[in-house]
User: Fold this.
Amino acid sequence: MHLVRAATLSGFDQLMTSYGLDYQELMSNTAVPSWALEEEHANNYLALNCLENLYAVAEKQSSEPALALILGLKQELPTLLGVLGFVMQQAKTVGEALYELEHYFSFQMQGAFIHLHMQDDYVALGLVVKNAAQLDSIRYTSEFAMGAGISILESLCGPKWRPLEIQFIHSAPKKYQKFSQLLKAPVFFEQAQSAIIFKASDLAIEIAHANPLLKTQVEMYLKQLEMQFTDDPINQIEKLIEHALSSGSCSADKVAAFLGMHRRSLHRMLLRLDTSYTELYEKVSKDIAYRMLKQSNISITVIANMLCYSELSAFSRAFRKWTGMSPQKFRASV
Assistant:
């Protein structure tokens, strides 16, 4: 399963507006939820297939073949990568920062990894999408990643830094000549990987204003987060259910749309995994209810509404089934 943090869409609305396009209409027509542009949902996940579709439609309407690349180049390290970006900024050297990116990349994207490969005097920073043949396309994801990678390296190495060349695994799109101009380096298509090639000596560049002590402290938090980001499909669907609940929906249709599939396909997949949507929804609802009753003073009625229960009595019956006590008693006991 291929999921990407919603933070990758940062700036999408402004970019579409600059081309005279209605970004909300684009998103509604491609099953990408509008909340994906909101800062508070930056850590929510979107299906890579849905993003590919969004870029394809936006490219057609804007007549801009480098759209995903341009958006990638506009990214800023802490906005794009969140906690991981902050940890990278506190590393001593560029090499140490890229090691953090390589190690914790699952926090940013699931179903893919970053590979840092050294050969002679050169380094290749490549994106590898696992089981890419299962996807309709990875073209726009690759182009966004290379643009974002350039932006990240410039922020770490300094604004005068330049790559030696850029490689893309896919075929050249129409009017690809603009790519080299934007990336400020030679561009090659139909390569073995999508990667940024640069000098190995760049890895030793020291990062200005780095704070190794602060990095160590924040990295402990990142290691705790890492345990939550696995390629286990059940774990991923549970996260998507939680995200759907946060946007006011609990339907299997909504979660299936996040994954870029039909509800029936989702049910068949869960059946193969020896579970069901109802079972996972109940587990997620129970976990959220426990957490909110323990850690907040939010009213039980509001919690029931957030979990898509039409009436407080229905939520209370479900909670009694889970715990043998009412939500009120449970809260009082903790």
About this structure: The chain has two domains: 64-226, 233-333. The first helix runs from residue 12 to 18.
